[in-house]
């Protein structure tokens, strides 16, 4: 193993939008020695779901930097300037940019930041009590996906930005990994698209944004009158994502601070009840589905599709040959049935990527909540044992802190602000001054003062009982 004697200020694990934002905001900070490792061999953003025409669900200002530093050279607008596309963008008047365009912008940033190392998989993060530093072990990923142990880097701070991974509910797991059946997770849809389009009958399971996008793509590309598509979902409706102006204030630092101050049991009750804020389907996609169905109905009678919400898949298996059998139950009716289909797209969502094995040797130092999850403080630091915390070294978490910071954790609109907060914490200064207030809504009746960030309320609200809260 090749050992490096130098000590970094910051090592980032994973380069998705979260740590790419951090790397972009870290770049101009003279004297900050940061390096970022990504197991993929180049920047990619959910490549299996870059369906033609799919758009971001947030406006372009939720780029990697602008909501913390609109003057940054790494802004989306500066990317457009470099690409000589500012005027077309201005006239297009579409603040919700194409998903493929967002990926292209991120790649443009990634290709220009010298602190990024692609094809590097981080295997372990451990605490060295003698050196009072973290040690990060990494390997190099070859073209075939094999990993060769490569080196170790020592650092004062680690930032985990390992993102999410596809999730398949228990009853559907028997379908995964059987090559004879045409089954894929929506995360890999584009790789399997031709096979899905060619199948006699296709079923899409799940009615989040990715389920709707996959269903729409299949619908648009199968023959009129012979669509042979089923779309089933557990939710009681093909529900729109909440997008009201005040509802969006749940995706602000003010709300994250409020949520962080709640009791753990309240947070755990609240988070699943807020699913419509981020797990529904955006209204434009719902309209496009209805429009395509209507267009087909005009051309040739009712399209051959079945759209049924409120349906749970009880079990799944395959029949002789390559057909799949789904055992369904309509939750409200209590009716059970069996659906035979030739191909299935599992649009069953994503979950935070587990970091248990990565952090195994840190385990004795990690403070956990009642449910066994790492505690994360208001500044996105994992709460570590006093002996580590006293050294000023820290492990930060990006997009793995929904249990502590709420529904905004995976939202691109929070990315730049969270990166700036982390950089303020790592440097112990304020290279990125942050706004004291970010929402018109005053969440809660008592003010919570987040360490390191001045009061978030106007004068009237501050007259309420102030409550200073630690970790
Ligand atoms: C299809 C899709 C569309 C979305 N669209 C929107 C949207 O429009 N608006 C919005 O607000 N949110 C959106 N989201 C939610 C969120 O913004 C994205 O999930 C975003 O990619 C999160 O960024 P991230 O950096 O946290 O994680 P990821 O993008 O998942 O990146 C994590 C990276 O870490 C790498 N990694 C993991 N483990 C290791 C390791 N041990 N060593 C090295 N590298 C490692 C992975 O390879 C990966 O590249 C979307 C999510 C999905 C799935």
UniProtKB/TrEMBL annotation:
The keyword NADP applies. The lineage of its organism: Bacteria, Bacillati, Actinomycetota, Actinomycetes, Kitasatosporales. Keywords: FAD, Flavoprotein, Monooxygenase, NADP, Oxidoreductase. GO terms for molecular function: monooxygenase activity. Its cofactor is FAD. It catalyses: L-lysine + NADPH + O2 = N(6)-hydroxy-L-lysine + NADP(+) + H2O. Pfam families: Lys_Orn_oxgnase. The keyword Oxidoreductase applies. This is L-lysine N6-monooxygenase MbtG. Pathway: Siderophore biosynthesis. It comes from Streptomyces griseoaurantiacus. Belongs to the lysine N(6)-hydroxylase/L-ornithine N(5)-oxygenase family.
């Amino acid at each position: 193993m090749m050992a490096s004697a130098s000590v970094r200020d910051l090592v980032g694990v994973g380069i998705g939008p979260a740590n790419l934002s951090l790397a972009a905001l870290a770049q101009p900070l003279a004297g900050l020695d940061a390096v970022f490792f990504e197991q993929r061999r180049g920047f990619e953003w959910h490549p299996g779901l870059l369906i033609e025409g799919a758009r971001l669900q947030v406006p372009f200002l939720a780029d990697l930097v602008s909501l913390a530093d609109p003057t940054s050279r790494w802004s989306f607008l500066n990317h457009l300037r470099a690409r000589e596309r500012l005027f077309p963008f201005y006239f297009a008047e579409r603040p919700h940019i194409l998903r493929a365009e967002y990926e292209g912008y991120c790649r443009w940033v990634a290709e220009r930041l010298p602190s990024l190392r692609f094809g590097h998989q981080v295997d372990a993060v451990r605490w060295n009590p003698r050196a009072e530093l973290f040690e990060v072990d990494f390997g190099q990923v070859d073209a075939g996906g094999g990993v060769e142990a490569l080196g170790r880097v020592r650092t004062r701070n680690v930032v985990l930005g390992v993102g999410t991974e596809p999730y398949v509910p228990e009853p559907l797991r028997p379908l995964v990994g059987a090559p004879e059946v045409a089954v894929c997770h929506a995360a890999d849809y584009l790789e399997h698209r031709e096979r899905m389009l060619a199948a006699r009958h296709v079923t899409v399971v799940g009615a989040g944004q990715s389920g709707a996008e996959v269903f729409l793509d299949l619908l648009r590309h199968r023959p009129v009158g012979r669509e042979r598509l089923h779309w089933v979902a557990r939710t009681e409706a093909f529900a729109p994502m909440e997008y009201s102006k005040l509802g969006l204030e749940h995706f602000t630092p003010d709300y994250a601070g409020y949520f962080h101050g709640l009791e753990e049991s309240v947070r755990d009750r609240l988070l699943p009840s807020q699913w419509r804020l981020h797990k529904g389907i955006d209204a434009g996609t719902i309209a496009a589905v209805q429009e395509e169905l209507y267009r087909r109905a005009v051309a040739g009678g009712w399209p051959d599709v079945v759209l049924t919400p409120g349906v749970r898949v009880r079990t799944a298996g395959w029949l002789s040959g390559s057909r799949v059998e789904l055992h369904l139950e309509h939750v409200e009716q209590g009716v059970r049935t069996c659906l035979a289909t030739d191909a299935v797209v599992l649009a069953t969502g994503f979950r935070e990527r587990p970091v248990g094995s990565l952090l195994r040797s840190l385990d004795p130092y990690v403070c956990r909540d009642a449910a066994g999850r790492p505690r994360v403080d208001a500044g996105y630091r994992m709460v570590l044992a006093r002996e580590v915390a006293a050294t000023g070294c820290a492990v930060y978490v990006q997009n793995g802190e929904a249990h502590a910071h709420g529904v905004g954790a995976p939202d691109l609109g929070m990315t730049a602000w969270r990166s700036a907060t982390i950089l303020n914490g790592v440097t112990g200064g304020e290279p990125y001054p942050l706004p004291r207030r970010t929402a018109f809504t005053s969440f809660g009746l008592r003010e919570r003062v987040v360490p390191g960030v001045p009061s978030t309320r106007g004068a009237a609200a501050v007259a309420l009982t102030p409550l200073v809260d630690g970790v």
